Amino acid sequence: MSATAARVCLKSQVIDFPRSTRLSRIKHVAKSICGDEEQPPGYLGHLSSVRTGSREELFTLILKSSSVDLKKLRGSLWSGCPSHLRPLCWKISLGYIPPTFQRHQETLLRKRAEYHSFSAEYFESNRVMNADELDILDQIQIDIPRTDSLRNLLHNERIKILSPLRVIYLFLRAIERVLFIRAIRNPATSYVQGMTDLVTPFFSGAKTSQNNYEVFSSEIQSGKSLTRANDETLLDNVEADCYWCLCKVLDTVQDHFTCSQPGIQRVCHRVNELVSRLDRALFEHLAREGVDIFHFAFRWATCLLLREFSGMTSPRAMASYNAFSFPIFFDTYISEGDNLSDFLAYLCTALLLRWAEQLKAKKFHDVISFLQQPPSVSWKTTEHVSRPVAKVTASASVGMVRVVGDLKTKLIMVCARHSPSENFIHFSRQKLKYVLNVTSKYFATYLNMDLMFEGLCLSGKKLLTSNPNSTQILPSDIKTMHAFP
Amino acid sequence: MSYAYLFKYIIIGDTGVGKSCLLLQFTDKRFQHVHDLTIGVEFGSRMVSINDRQIKLQIWDTAGQESFRSITRSYYRGAAGALLVYDITRRETFEHLSSWLEDARQHANPNMTIMLIGNKSDVAHKRQVSREEGEEFAREHGLVFLETSAKTSDNVEEAFINTASVICEKIDDGLDVSNESHGIKVGYGAGGTGANQGGFVNPGAAPRVGGGGGAAGQCC
Questions:
Q1: Residues in contact with B78: Cβ distance below 8 Å, sequence separation at least 6, in sequence order
Q2: Is B220 at the interface with chain A, CB within 8 A?
Q3: Which of B152, B26, B168 is nearest to B83 (CA)?
Q4: B132 to chain A nearest CA, in Å?
Q5: Is there a domain that residue A74 lies in?
Q6: A271 and A333 housed in the same domain
Q7: How many structural domains compose chain A?
Q8: Residue range A296-323, pLDDT digits in tens
Q9: Touching check for A194 and chain B: CB below 8 Å?
Q10: Is the ipTM of this complex over 0.85?
Q11: CB pairs under 8 A between A and B
Q12: Is B41–A295 a contact, with Cβ atoms under 8 angstroms apart?
């Protein structure tokens, strides 16, 4: 069934519903998505609560339960999580530790011991590696020093100031072991370049406060930090945790790294298809210029866009709150779980659509050069910005496509984060809330995700182009929104 | 900017031999001590002048790791020139040349010009492959050979430009520029000589130009 036919069909279904059913359903869905006034904050609640600082409370509330509600946790994690809670949230979301609090310690002990037994086995001093293993290790050793994100991590000023060279050395060795053991234990993927990028978020941790740089480990809860403690046991635990969490993520995108990278190809095809439907003119322009999605999206997908958002991978001080002080989309990846690949395709598409007008004015060479070094590399939140505008930008959110699974109804949201260096559209939370409200009504009955995506992009685009600088919803916007579909 | 021809190049060779650094030195005239490792392919372009003709080089820099071979192979097709790079300080990168060459012969068009590059000539004290060995390998396989240093830029210009000269000679000898798989595109002008209708090449007519000789096809 073609997309149009599907839409017509779905549309007719909507029309065929008795009015009362339709209304109650919409109401129900809108309620489930937006949350009731009296209820604990739902998704929108999270967004608006970020500004008031209660986001932390929200996470604390979710996490303090003796058995964490995974659905709630993932839902909240989607839009970014306070840095100091990130390690715990990731571990639970990824299924590395169970949701039941009492079993955390026991699981951690067991998994860490298991990892250390691998490590002891593979790196035992009198063990002779075979040629394949040596090749892999060799490759990893060549690649680690030339992975920019890792170097950024280690050149982070705090680490540089506080860490003796030895800690950096230990750090590098730990990363090397993690990647090597993963490769040996997963011969289907083995080691593929790009994994050195992917290991970074797990090791990088985040700033938990102005003066505290913490690593990805549950130990942070006891107030220790790597740089301060210089504690090898701590580093050992961090290493084990990183290994298991990295494995969990790599398992969900396993086919991105198997022979011929079928998963990457699928993401690229998907992006191609989405662009062809969402912005025909852009699609045709790229085709005319001979630009193949693979030319750039291969790397985008392999490194999960970490390089394209490299400006966000450096930890930094955040003026108002720290939810976005990390490559926030990595929180989103974690929360997406098995849908990571799909989400990635949407995210890539959203980026292309964001730059559509610029791309349409460019020839082949410039298109490729632009997309290999896209403006997003300099997207930051607020670290260098001391002007008052910082606060505004910090509370805005990035151009992203949000896929929320809720009652089998999916809602996709396009939002925008402002970057001071870019002439971006300010998308206030209020506006987002409104868009979400309005669109949820339209899309509630649409079960086909792509169609919703298409629809929302169209209406979102119209909204943005008609009124780029406003942070208020105008009557004309509402008309635009209502005009869809 | 107008150009007489556009040549597609690929850079191939083991990982870490300095492919991306060669490209950066050639297109940007700078050296990055550590270059973020290439995933998939990267792209660069530059205009060069061969015997007063403007030639645009469109260069695809490929990832060296075995896992990416299937994607990089698709770039062999439609390449006019290839720089096959090894690292003179790592013998194994030299020993893998045959497998790279085999790959190129299998997936590229037979007219592709291959330049063999021994990179990192500035690190002479760590040399593991002698210049003579490189020359010998090139002679054996009919390649052009140069030792370069992406760091000091020694011979980098030459590597790209000499390859272009060889391709130009091939065009003069009758290489079919209308065949897309040869990696050559006829441009729209050559140094403002009114080439569209003039004595050089009429792009409209290009697909029907069989070989060299006559008014069309005289490159260098």
A1: B8, B109, B180, B181, B182, B183
A2: no
A3: B26
A4: 27
A5: yes
A6: yes
A7: 2
A8: 999 999 999 888 877 665 444 222 233 3
A9: yes
A10: no
A11: 64
A12: yes
